[in-house]
Amino acid sequence: MGSQVQSECEPAKRSPLLNVIAEVLCMVFDLVKVLSISIPLLILSVVKILVPSKLKNVRGQTVLITGAGNGLGKAMALEFANRGSNVVIVDVDLEAAERTCAELRRERSVAAYAFRVDVSSYEQVEALVDNVYKNVGPVDVLINNAGVVGFNFLQDADEANINRMIDVNVKSVIWMTKHFLKRMIERKRGHIVSISSLAGIHPLPWATVYSTSKHAVNGFMGALTEQLRLQGHAGEIRTSCVNPYYISTRKDITDFLKKPRFGILTTEYTAKCIVEGVLRNEATITVPRFFGLGVKFMQLFPTRVQQVIRDYILREYELNSA
């Protein structure tokens, strides 16, 4: 009797054909729903490209930049100082960091603080956070800029350089973000920026490990963005991942790039584009702006077609040719 009642309560089984039809109808319904939501968002994105939104005000806010004693980091510090931000410079080269701070105080009349930290060290980053919040105050914008560049084929890269590149380019981004994110969540306010590279979305054969490290940065920032959205913090804490083209930050870079397909960017131009993108709360910032669209368009094609584009348009084979 019990088995009879149980069988009567079970739902009627559908045929395999009906199951397929039901699944297809559900997928069609979901697709229509996605399109109805996405099309207005796509239109809004295009409008924002053509008519950029207003820059947010960061006057009086504190911006912390790693690796900002020289190069791109210093140029970004100057850009934020021009907008009235107070700046915290974190660098392994304390003298360079202090020189940058002295310049900011003298020429921009903002508060500037220098800290010597190896950002690839978990313990040093943990101590930095306590030190900054105790002696400076809350950080409004964190910029993970410190990085190591290396142009090598994989077989030419030695173990020490590979470890250092992964430690600085990847682990430092994770350690800095992990520790500062906790404070930003408590405060319900903040903006986390990581400087990646076009090599982080377009694999660069001349720099296998470097390109790997920058792909990791893009993956990390993408996952972090979705984590914050899932946790309900997306409206409070913004994220930006920056992918610039080659920048003339150091002589060894410009010496290696003998025949780049496009002109090398200056640090001043790149810093200006990055800061403006951050102040527009752009999740992905590509410098120049339309290079990112070019990479996405290229990736629509099969690998063999992408290789033809590399050979005949990008001409990557002659990048280091005399």
Automatic annotation (TrEMBL):
SMART domains: PKS_KR (SM00822). InterPro entries: KR_dom (IPR057326), NAD(P)-bd_dom_sf (IPR036291), SDR_fam (IPR002347). Residues 61-246 form the Ketoreductase domain. Gene3D superfamilies: NAD(P)-binding Rossmann-like Domain. Belongs to the short-chain dehydrogenases/reductases (SDR) family. PANTHER family: FI23927P1-RELATED, PKSB. This is Ketoreductase domain-containing protein. It comes from Aedes albopictus (Asian tiger mosquito).
